[in-house]
Amino acid sequence: MRLFVLCSALSAVAMMNGAGLAADAVKDFPTKPVRIIVGYAPGGGVDMAARLVGQALGELWNGSVVIDNRPGAAGGIGTEMTARAAPDGYTMMLCNIATHGITPARVAKLPYDPIRDFSFLSRVGGNPNVLMAHASLPARTIPELVTYAKANPGKLSYGSSGVGASPHLSVELLKMMTGISIVHVPYKGAAPALADVMGGQIPLSVGNLPGGPLAAIKSGKVRGLAVTTLKRSAKAPDVPTMAESGVPGYEVNGWYGICSPKLPKTLEAKINADLIKVLASDTLKKRLDDQGIDVQSSTPDELVAHVRAEIAKWIKVVKEANLGATE
Questions:
Q1: Closest to 167 (Cα-Cα) out of 98, 117, 79
Q2: In 3D, which of 128, 67, 133, 130 has the Cα closest to residue 97?
Q3: Where are the domains positioned within the chain?
Q4: In 3D, which of 305, 295, 300, 298 has the Cα closest to residue 269?
Q5: Helix (H, G, I), strand (E, B) or coil at 90
Q6: Spatial separation of the C-alpha atoms in residues 227 and 244, rounded to whole Å
Q7: pLDDT (tens digit, 0 to 9) for every residue of the chain, 327 residues total?
Q8: How many C-beta atoms surround the C-beta of residue 184 within 10 A?
Q9: Hey, which residues does 165 pair with through a beta bridge?
Q10: Contact by Cβ (8 Å): 94, 37
Q11: How far is CA 1 from the centre of its chain?
Q12: Which of 97, 159, 270, 300 could form a disulfide with 205 if both were Cys (CB 3.0 to 4.6 A apart)?
């Protein structure tokens, strides 16, 4: 009996010491380089967002944050690597609308669970897609486009960067919500789709606002019909939103967040606090704004709720668009 009591007491002490060590480990995190996985090639919007956030975290932590580009499978390769990494906070990823919204809606059997296998540390920000028209198109607004499309079903076409990307599904959502019929013309990238709408080869195109589309709208080479976010973009304040253009409830936000393998709550809270701190800095806000990213931090609970809502929304759009869930 005395031996049992002694062993129990020692076990209790060991558990208390373990808890203390765990608390110290969280307080001192990080003590070695942190890796942020990006599921896309260097140079794109996701990569740039990761590099800017990583640089700010490195400065806060007085340590090294390394960006690890793992392109392929629409971000799926990097996402699976993250899900399978050690749950110690030293591997994170720049998750986004494609990796944790659209892909789970399109792929029936993923090698990871897009919710349960991750900690959603904080939202980083978002940016809109924009629907553009060639000057020859009679419709100058979304209500006019809807009227024109209904009078000419299946005769209009629009270009995008490819099947299943957020620009493509932005228009499929519009079709679902308005009942119009417009033919999708997938390109091998955003640039050729934009070039063809500028040249008049196609009447409509949709793409991420920052970069080429923004410059084309400002130069008058295309007409910006609407952005897909709930609020107008400060970069293109004259372009209305879909919601204010007669499609209430419409929203597609090309969001970014920082995710990781599922972490202990204490470590999750610590990293969330650090992310909110750097995202509140004027320096990082300015750097992200220069890339067309509107900073939007969050709690882990807020981000996971957003991810759940995104998956549910895109499942409906994928079904309506007859894209079919892939294996």
A1: 98
A2: 128
A3: 17-127+254-320, 129-245
A4: 300
A5: coil
A6: 10
A7: 443 333 444 333 333 333 443 677 788 899 999 999 998 888 777 888 999 999 999 999 999 999 999 988 878 899 999 999 999 999 999 999 989 999 999 888 899 999 999 999 999 998 899 999 999 999 999 999 999 999 999 999 999 988 878 889 999 999 999 999 999 998 877 888 999 999 999 999 998 887 688 889 999 999 999 999 999 998 899 999 999 999 999 999 889 999 999 999 999 999 999 999 999 999 999 999 888 788 999 999 999 999 999 999 899 888 877 776 554
A8: 18
A9: none
A10: yes
A11: 59
A12: 159
Phi then psi for 110, rounded to 5 degrees? -90, 150
Q: What CATH number should be reported for the domain whose range is 129-245?
A: 3.40.190.10
Q: Which two tokens stand for residue 264?
A: 């202990």
Q: What residues contact residue 127 under an 8 Å CB cut-off, 6+ apart?
A: 45, 208, 209, 210, 229, 233, 253, 254, 292, 293, 294
Per-residue tokens: 124: 């980083």
Superfamily of domain 17-127+254-320 in the CATH hierarchy: Bordetella uptake gene, domain 1 (3.40.190.150)
